[in-house]
Amino acid sequence: MQQQLDQEQDVLTYLLSTLVGGALDAEGEQMLDEVFGITTANLNQLTPQGWAAIGDRAIQAKWFLDHISEIKEKFKLLIDAQICFREFQAWLMEAGYKGAEKIKKAQIDVAVARAKYGATVEVEDYRLTKRQEQFTEETVQDKLFWDNTVIAAIAKKVAEVDAATTKMQGNPEFAQQLADWKDQESNIYKQAAYGLKHGTHGLSHPALGGSASSPLQISQSSFSQPQFVSASGSGSATQRSAVQRSATTKAKDSINVAVNWSGDMAGKVNGVASQINRGFSRFTKFFRGES
Q1: Helices 68-169 and 172-198: crossing angle, nearest 10°?
Q2: Residues 6+ apart with CB under 8 A from 42
Q3: How many Cβ atoms from other residues are within 10 Å of residue 177's Cβ?
Q4: SS (HEC) of the chain
């Protein structure tokens, strides 16, 4: 019953209920609905609320028509701005590609220059290394030559001294002087021992054959071992004379050895100096770039 009453109430609100509704042409009605959102088939059933909805749409349409010029201007601005933005993007990308191309070319030029420089440095480093190895080997050979020369010269002189010493050992005078020297060396240590133990009085100990009134006299030569000679005793003058002759003979022998050594070594040094000069000459030519 309530439902029937509601339907009767709706019928009473239809403002065009006197008209017969329905579509005049089904396709035309469909076109109006799809294109404009308008339908005429149910106009006779519109209520005041329905007509108010149509009025709202009409008011919106009138506002749109009243402001169409301004709306067009705003949308034109939006379109122009969007076009300008895309053109700006195109310009920027084109300029970027051109710049990137120049930068890439510069990078390639640098890479080529770096590769060329690296190859040059590698070749020159290798050349320098080989020249250094050559100079080092030559220096080693020069040092070996010098060492061998000095060793041979020393060996030669040692052999000469040994031969001279051996020859002198067969000399009775030398043998006697050597025996005297050994006795004096032993007596020196005895004197030192007795002096250390008993003081000055110890130097006159009977075992030394001396007295406190006759102190020990010492004579020393630059070319021989120290000679200690006692001032007392009947044979002291003869002994001192023999020691002096021995010292003089040894001094002359030492001078002769030094002279012979200097003469022999002069030639050796000149030869080695020549080798060193040749080495420095090669070193200088190398750093000048000469082969």
Answers
A1: 110
A2: 21
A3: 21
A4: CHHHHHHHHHHHHCCCCCCCCCCCCHHHHHHHHHHHCCCCCCHHHCCHHHHHHHHHHHHHHHHHHHCHHHHHHHHHHHHHHHHHHHHHHHHHHHHHHHHHHHHHHHHHHHHHHHHHHHHHHHHHHHHHHHHHHHHHHHHHHHHHHHHHHHHHHHHHHHHHHHHHHHHHHCCHHHHHHHHHHHHHHHHHHHHHHHHHHHHHHHHHCHHHCCECCECEEEECCCCCCCEEEECCCCCHHHHHHHHHHHHHHHHHHHHHHHHHHHHHHHHHHHHHHHHHHHHHHHHHHHHCCCC
How far is Cα of residue 129 from the mean position of the Cα atoms in its chain?
Answer: 17
pTM score above 0.70? no
Q: What is the pLDDT along the chain (291 residues), one digit of tens a residue?
A: 455 545 544 555 677 887 888 888 999 999 999 999 999 888 888 889 998 999 999 999 999 999 999 999 999 999 999 999 999 999 999 999 999 999 999 999 999 999 999 999 999 999 999 999 999 999 999 988 988 888 888 888 888 877 877 777 667 777 777 777 776 667 777 778 877 877 787 778 787 765 444 444 444 443 344 444 444 444 444 444 444 455 445 444 544 444 454 445 444 444 544 544 454 455 445 445 554
Residue owning tokens 């149910």: 42
At residue 113, what is the residue type? Answer: A
